[in-house]
Amino acid sequence: MEPVKVGLLGLGTVGGGTVNVLARNGEEIARRAGRALVIAKAFTRSPDKPRICDLSGIEQVTDPWQVVNDPQIAIVAELIGGTDIARELVLGAIERGKHVVTANKALIALHGNEIFARASEKGVMVAFEAAVAGGIPIIKVLREGLAGNRIEWLAGIINGTGNFILTAMRDQGRDFDDVLAEAQRLGYAEADPTFDVEGIDAAHKLTILAAIAFGIPLQFDKVYTEGITRITQEDVRYAEELGYRIKHLGIARRRENGVELRVHPCLVPARRLLANVDGVMNAVVVKGDAVGPTLYYGPGAGAEPTASAVVADLVDVVRTMTADPENRVPHLAFQPDALSDLPPLPMAAVETAYYLRLRVADRPGVLADVARILADENISIEAVIQKEPQPGQTDVPLIFLTHRVREQAFDAALARITALDSVKAPPYRIRLETLE
Amino acid sequence: MEPVKVGLLGLGTVGGGTVNVLARNGEEIARRAGRALVIAKAFTRSPDKPRICDLSGIEQVTDPWQVVNDPQIAIVAELIGGTDIARELVLGAIERGKHVVTANKALIALHGNEIFARASEKGVMVAFEAAVAGGIPIIKVLREGLAGNRIEWLAGIINGTGNFILTAMRDQGRDFDDVLAEAQRLGYAEADPTFDVEGIDAAHKLTILAAIAFGIPLQFDKVYTEGITRITQEDVRYAEELGYRIKHLGIARRRENGVELRVHPCLVPARRLLANVDGVMNAVVVKGDAVGPTLYYGPGAGAEPTASAVVADLVDVVRTMTADPENRVPHLAFQPDALSDLPPLPMAAVETAYYLRLRVADRPGVLADVARILADENISIEAVIQKEPQPGQTDVPLIFLTHRVREQAFDAALARITALDSVKAPPYRIRLETLE
């Protein structure tokens, strides 16, 4: 089948990330979508600017309407941002019968009602997973994964810049202005940080989440919005002392007579997972009446995390364009004739670190014997715990943590350790993963 | 449009939960799906057994083939479990052109390849979100939400019973056998706990997750499986001492020459979110090459959490049966003509708790004055921090935490507090949510 031709509007962070992800994972994505995707044409205002991506094979144009008007292009990905020209281009693409994928939260929050109505009339899709919480598929989760629930409330850390600032204020005892300046140097915050630190960006996203959760229209102007600029180091410390952490949350709650829509700083009990979401990461807690509390966590911004959501939307659209409805999503994600024969590996080939618990005779030289056997197999030791014997006992626990090693080598060492005279009970080992 | 008729196989925990969720949320679900769902017929072996759900309007039958053979029924929900009769019934339903929704992980892990092949031939859908991690929509996340990624690895707490036991061993210093007995009393563990504590249930689920993540066939027999029965209180304590927690994980990792598929106890750094997933909750970390690390958390079992996933699958099927492909999922989750006019509430009507930071004169009676104003507005105080003045300062910080109250009442109190002579700087308040 012919590849599906995609037109990009914008070659900045998200556009560049999208080009890179499609180039790197194109084959795997085609196995999932049932059809290849190619970026045929890309609009950029400044064609000579250095890019994060390789543009070979992509026609660059400096007039965005050359993308929107191209009859070869089936899907337009709007990655410019803002609400002026983006709105016109998206409506123009819909008018011409093209499907649209967008990462533009302001556009959806402010003009979504209009855009969706036009798309329904024209029978085209408008997908916007990348507009909220970057790579976390929270739109799909709410629209489809939790479709059986009456959503009671949701609360999210949906602005990475704000969370980066609050995390640094807590971890490093620094003041708001100081951390903001660093965030600007690192590129996490804009030169004009108003959208992030005053909560406007989060309010755009909350508008979208609340509409999907409760089945209400998009109504950005009804969101109460308060930023984080007045939080002091003192507040951060008192919150800790009281068992809380300060997070900047978007909260939507269903009440009997209406819905609460609010973005503001919030104390959260320190033991909650949401209180432990740090740095630029995002997370959304959704409470459904059937499922109970659920949480979705991941990078909320950045080139490739956002591109992950853009490409997921492209795959969604391509699957719908290409497959019979019943086979839209393959059972095992990949097309049945495109499964891989990558073999499951034997445990001997697995690489992991280990915790090893021994019970050994309480006499000199035992630790040296065990350490020698581990060294013989090239197993590095990360930590050792040796305890004094309990009254009346002649043997003691001896605990090792190792660095990563092949299980085959560890098992060989373990067999020799088990055979030592000084080892008094069958050893027990637990694998250790740092999950990085 | 006619409602879609669903036939249930099984009226136990998950079947009963599904009946309840559809009864309670039926109107909202129809607004999402574009069409009503009704359970027309339900098979149960023991029609006189007490149920957790109201069965009025549902025809009960004691022969499951009466459900499968009923030409009125468009979707069969298989909620019996096990692999013998369930396999025959599912294949029988597919043969008769019915769509299938199942919560049966063993069935999919062991017979999925056969079932999916038959379903594709017959052009029917087989959905199985409820088979892994209960109400967490992890299948949809992997198949669709992360479709742009090359998945590098995933690691999950995917057996609630095992996690309940390990959590209690850590928090309460109890031994495995003791906690297992309690889990059995509470209904979290079966009389024969082998499937849970030996990792077989987790291996079924890991088989499914790995196939979807990597595009490999289902191959349960290749999963290395080790249980938690040999973990002692000693191990739990040493792990803590070293900065780790012990979790029972299912891990699938892509390597150059193959895939690791393994279920075993694992030390995880204590600061990781996954290490802080406690009790019967489940969570899966997925590392994609574009998105980075993401985490999905929620209840992994139980009547309604599992029903949440069953009903989401039913909605998926109904949307595909009913809508044009382009309009399969409404933009805002609910059908455009079925949005709600639930109004956004003014902040004055919001109920929340508050942190209040004051700077007050260091003299007797100030705390009493503020407390009196709060009491006048019926605001209960949860905690107070009053600090000594710094050398050379005449005013001191005074911090309050309040219980939940209407914002209107809090604002009224705050205006009076701000006007006090003894209050030396503009007060600052942060809302507080327990997220329960």
What is the subunit organization of this protein? homodimer
Would you tell me the structural class of the helices and strands of chain A?
alpha/beta
The domain tally of chain A reads 3
Q: What is the alpha-carbon Rg of chain A in Å?
A: 27 Å
Strand content of chain A: 15-25%
Domain ACT (chains A, B): 355-431
Protein name (chains A, B): Homoserine dehydrogenase
InterPro entries (chains A, B): ACT-like_dom_sf, ACT_dom, Asp/hSer_DH_NAD-bd, HDH, HDH_cat, HDH_CS, NAD(P)-bd_dom_sf
Family (chains A, B): Belongs to the homoserine dehydrogenase family.
Task: Describe this protein's structure.
Chain A has 13 helices and 17 strands. The first copy, chain A, is an alpha/beta fold. The first copy, chain A, has three domains: 166 residues, NAD(P)-binding Rossmann-like Domain (Rossmann fold, 3-Layer(aba) Sandwich), CATH 3.40.50.720; 162 residues, Dihydrodipicolinate Reductase, domain 2 (2-Layer Sandwich); 86 residues, ACT domain (Alpha-Beta Plaits, 2-Layer Sandwich), CATH 3.30.70.260. In chain A, the strands form three sheets. In chain A, strands 3-2-1-4-5-6 form a six-stranded parallel beta sheet, sandwiched between helices. Chain A has a six-stranded mixed beta sheet with strand order 8-10-9-7-11-12. The mean pLDDT of chain A is 95. At the A-B interface, helix 1, helix 4, helix 5, helix 9 and helix 10 of A face helix 1, helix 4, helix 5, helix 9 and helix 10 of B.
